[in-house]
């Protein structure tokens, strides 16, 4: 497969998947009535941040896919993506606050392992995942705070 086409498919998978899931599980009246911590960013921040992160995630996945020995980085990349795509339907769709914390903490653990594995095999892929790791770390604290307040 052409490398540019493959890169485009990875970005389409991550960004497109994130946009579709985001559109299907939008904040609603239930979310509006929840108590939120003072450090909750305004709603408009999440779309641009996630869009940029999904592009980086796609590029990192493409870099890992190109490796002759993908190993754990490849398996963990797919697992983190699945957990990422699961969180919004659990939180916004099912309104399962406790389960959403379990999902996001699992995502954080798998993502950290993915960053380490990617870093060992392809340092640029690991670096590309660092902003995502930082954001999911923040989102984990935010999610836990919302659960605590509600």
TrEMBL record:
Pfam families hit by this protein: TspO_MBR
Keyword line: Membrane, Transmembrane, Transmembrane helix
Subcellular location: Membrane
Membrane topology: Multi-pass membrane protein
Gene Ontology process terms (BP): tetrapyrrole metabolic process
Keyword Protein biosynthesis tagged: no
Cellular component annotations (GO), alphabetically ordered: membrane
CDD domains documented for this protein: TSPO_MBR
TM regions (residue ranges): 44-64, 76-94, 100-119, 126-149
Similarity comment: family membership: Belongs to the TspO/BZRP family.
Listed name of the protein: Tryptophan-rich sensory protein
Gene source species: Acidocella aromatica
